[in-house]
Amino acid sequence: MNAYLSIPSRYLAGRKLRTFLTTLAVVFGVAVVFSMNMVLPAVTSALNASEMGVTGAVDMTVKSATGEPFQSNLIAQVSQTNGVAAVAPAFGMLITLAPPSQITEFDFVGIDIGAAESVNAFNVTAGRFINGDDSMSAVISQHLAQLAGLTVGDTFKLPTPQGISSLPIVGVYDAQSDDRVLVPLKTAQTLFNAPDKITAIDVAVTAGADRDGVKQAIQQKLGTAFNVGSTASSNAFAQSILLGAIIFNVFGLLTLFMGAFLIFNTFRTVVIERRHDIGMLRAVGATRGTITRLILVESAMQGIIGTLIGLVLGYLLGTLLVNALSGALNQFIRIRVGNTGVPIDGLIISIVLGIGATLLAGLLPALSAGRVPVLAALRLEQAEVVQQRAGKSALVGAGLLVIGIAGLFVGNSAIATLGAVLILIGLVLLVPVLLRPITRFIEPLTRWLFAREGLMAEGNVQRNPGRAAITVSALMIALAVIVALYSVLTSVVQAYNSRLSEQFSADILLIPPSVAVWVGDVGVNDQFEQQLAKIPGVGSWAGLSYAPAQVKGTGVQVLGFDPANYPKVSSLAFDQGNDSTYAELSSGRTTVVSGIFASSMGYKVGDSVPVQTPDGVLNYRIVGIGTDYLGVKLATLYISKQNMTADFHRAEDIMVMANLKPGADAATTRAEIQNLLQNYPQLTLYWGADWREQQIAYLNSIFSALYIVLIALIIPSALGLINTLAINVMERTREIGVLRAVGATRAQIRRLVVAEALLLGLVGTALGLVAGIALGYSLVALVSTTMTSSIQFSFPFVGILFAIVLAIVMALLASVLPARQAARVKIVQALQYE
Fold first, then answer.
1. FRET pair for 318, CA 20 to 30 Å: which of 197, 356, 371, 640?
2. Residue 746 — φ and ψ, nearest 5°?
3. Structure pTM?
């Protein structure tokens, strides 16, 4: 038993750099996974524990599934449920304001005063609370009062579809974190054209009643068109946080996978370099099982060490993330996250993944080591033997390569993606066979740069094809990932920019604060648009209205416009359909759906879509598939303005686009529009060209940040490359000693090691570029099916240049330290190396 620990320990201690790089990959992956398993439960627990209703902290809240207003006659059904002590109907909405307003967003809530006070207490700190005699009066939260610099007697300016409404402030109530404006229920319904409509019913449960039972009873009464529970958990901001945490969890799993691949490559190299040691152990009586267990124990040691360190770092990272999210959640949705604990399930998952990944990665090399014949292991492995063995794998690789290339041109994105993966696998299997011709092709360059050292480097690579193939494979995979993801990012950026320029061609854009999200945006009514149309310089114009909806339980956004006027100021990019499709939107319940909706939900032209509206489920027939810049990222239904008003009760437009009349004076027109907007602060005027440039710059900045994420994703691959290259030069210490003994200088040794590393780097680069372009092409095809087919593959010239430079730099950096160490080793010590 001691031998199973002492022998692997000596090997690990004797190769400190390799051990460090291999273990670091495990540490990195485990830390990310464990930290995310701390964040998710903490945030979820806080969301579930906080039952913040529209009027304040309540037992539960009833809302429509789509978030739309609904008829107030449902109040009686809820109040008559056993276990319900009191109910409070409310009409509430989040209102977002554009800069330079001091207030970016606040909750506007109309309450039934008596009912609201029966489910929640309002501690008035200044003035009085609103009463039944008030009509246009408001009470605001203390936090909002401090933020806006308002007090009792001041006037609160509220943007509404009719323009600004002035609300006298009669009181301030104690709420240090809430930004709320409370008005009588009928006032809110009047201001937002929703008579007898409410958005929520806050519920207080009788003391001692089974809260979950009451919730289920209400849900059963109202059906699936309504949600009963916490409003906080449905908040878009909270969902974004949870989605982000899940994405980072996936990132952690990918990191562990790359770490496992690094360990797999490391132990493949270990088996090759220790053939003589393995042969000696077999010669003195060690069984195949013993050899296999020795390699697995070494792998497990690295997994255990990496996992333990990763858990510590993950706990620190998770604590930092929870504290940061606590502040954001408290600010935006008034949720307080409690103290960070250590989730037992997350701990177990991290340990199993960390140690399990390393054991699985070491399993195949360990089995391979156990199968090494004694006599073969006691003599050096010749290149011809390796080449002969590699030839069998090369036949399989060639077959996969041919199938993969054919799959790229089938026209199906899923088959194309599979084809790209087969190309990558095929190239990995072909690497040992391709080494000789590629190195000979590159030989003139290496000989020109390094003279005789370059020729010797080529000989070293061909003499040790197994070890060289491992190094080249690691580099090839890393570069394939870089080039492929860069291709996707570049293609998507170009598609967005092209779509923006083509579709938002209007001269004048009146934009709300939250473009393409719409939550919190206040629309404008027909009166505003009539005044806009009367401005002498304004020509054709069209408005865009919005409503949330659901299709088979999945949230979608619905955008409505006038099919006759909309094409004059904007357009849809049709995957299926053309300009005549607009006319079809004017006939019955018809819709154009976005590509992401059609692909994710499995719909096609001619199908009927069951859409959950405030009045129930209504069927819309699909007449086209297409999208615009605003709907490219989301599942979107485009319908006529007439259907939007009739089925969703949304007559207001949240965005307006217009063109200048020929010969109109732009400055005069702009001044008149700005004067009109003084009473409608929910919209901001942009010249179309300026806004398009702003959006392009914004998109470019977002994708620049994604490039940073791309670099972070290749860290494990970079570690693998450095590791294998370092092993490659360190294990040649004895050979270097021989060269020094016959007269080679230290400088020549350094040049030899650098030349060999550069040669391997160039071979890996050549193969990685081929695999990366194929993989990128297939991924772009896959992305286009989920967004729109107009996304075309953009050849990644810059990405290829970056990958080449990165590969050369990584290869050279990986060789610097080992080259210096090898050159400084004394000749006698080098000759005694292993």
1. 356
2. -60, -40
3. 0.69
